[in-house]
Amino acid sequence: MQVEIITPDAEIYKGDAVLVQLPGIDGSFEILNNHAPLISALKEGKIKLKKTKEGKEEFFDIKGGVIEVLNNKVLILAG
Q1: What pLDDT score does 53 carry?
Q2: Which residues lie below 8 Å from residue 8, measured CB to CB, with a gap of 6+?
Q3: Quick one: 59 exposed, middle or buried, by C-beta within 10 A (0-12, 13-18, 19+)?
Q4: Does domain 2-78 have CATH number 2.60.15.10?
Q5: All structural domains of the chain with their residue ranges
Q6: Beta strand 38-42 with 65-70: parallel, antiparallel or unpaired?
């Protein structure tokens, strides 16, 4: 799935991932390929991206934000 992480200052990630783990306001949750459409608020924490099935991971710190998932595209507007 295609993932974009955007802050007010810059685009900090744009690329493919097989898993996205996020700090939701009601708890941590994950997005996988073919996830149902979703809009959710995020709290301060870490975003974990698993880029490949072999397990290559990348982490991003955020202060909060919003996520939209639609048609295998994940857009994260982060603070």
Answers
A1: 76
A2: 79
A3: exposed
A4: yes
A5: 2-78
A6: antiparallel
